[in-house]
Amino acid sequence: MPGSLGTLFVVATPIGNLEDVTLRALRILREVAVIAAEDTRRTSRLLQHYSISTPTISLHEHNERSRTATLLDRLARGESVALVSDAGTPVVSDPGAELVRAAHAAGVRVEPIPGPSAVMAAVSASGFGGEGFVFLGFPPRARSRAAPG
Amino acid sequence: MPGSLGTLFVVATPIGNLEDVTLRALRILREVAVIAAEDTRRTSRLLQHYSISTPTISLHEHNERSRTATLLDRLARGESVALVSDAGTPVVSDPGAELVRAAHAAGVRVEPIPGPSAVMAAVSASGFGGEGFVFLGFPPRARSRAAPG
User: Long-range contacts for B135-142 (Cβ within 8 Å, ≥24 apart)?
Assistant: First the structure.
C-alpha cells in the first residue's frame, strides 16, 4: 500500500557557507527518521550548527549497494529518509543515484528539496550561460575535492 | 576606488514553495538598498511573506539596458543591489546577464547567493545525470512559463 511508505527527500545542503540552507531543508532534516550522508562527520557540523539531532548513516561510493537495501527497507516500513551529500545538490556528481533509482522502482515517493548548487552558482555569477550550458562533471578528485556539487 | 563600490548579489529565490529560500538570501534581501526583480509583483509576495520592506525595481527583457545603467550608477555610489528572477537562480534562462556582465566590467563585486534551481532539482530527483548533463534552456514560453530557472 503506497500510502504506508516513507518518502525519500533529496536535500541540497550548503556549499561552503552554513547560512546557505533553506528553511524547508532544515525542517526536513529535523523531521525524518534518518539522514543518509556522504560523510557523516561533515553533515554533523551542519546539524550541530542548527541543533538538529536526527541520526545519520553513511552512504558513499563504497557502501552504496548495501546501504540502499537497508534504507529501502526502512522506507518500506514507513520511515522517511533524507539523502544529503557533502555539499550542494545530491546525485549531481555525488553518491545516491542508486538509492534514488531503487526508490523510484519500489514506488517510493522521491521529493527534491532544492537548494545550493555550485554549478548553478558559478553559471549565475559568470554573466554567461543564459540560455543553456553543458555540465561535464567536476575535475577528478585529488586528495581533496576541487568543487562540491 | 573599489572599496567604495556596492556589491551586486545574484540571489536565488523559491521555485514554487516559499519555504525554499536560504537564510542568507533572506538576510541579503533585507540588507541591500534595492532589489532588481524580473517581476516586482511576484517578488513582492516573497518579501511580504518574510516581512522584508526593501524597495524593488523591475529588470526584465524590455528594459534591461536602461535599468542596467541606473543600477550601475547606484553600485558606483556604494549602494548594494540584489538581482532576483521570478523563481530560481537568476541569469540561467532569465534577464540579468547584461547587468552581471556590466558589473564585472565596472569592477563591481558580483556575489552569487546559491539556492533553488529547477534544473538541479529535476536532475537530483531523476536518478540520472550523476556525472554530467546538458541544459539546453527551457521550452519556449507560451502564455505562462513552463518551468522556472
Answer: B135/A132, B135/A133, B135/A134, B135/A135, B135/B92, B136/A132, B137/A131, B137/A132, B137/B93, B138/B93
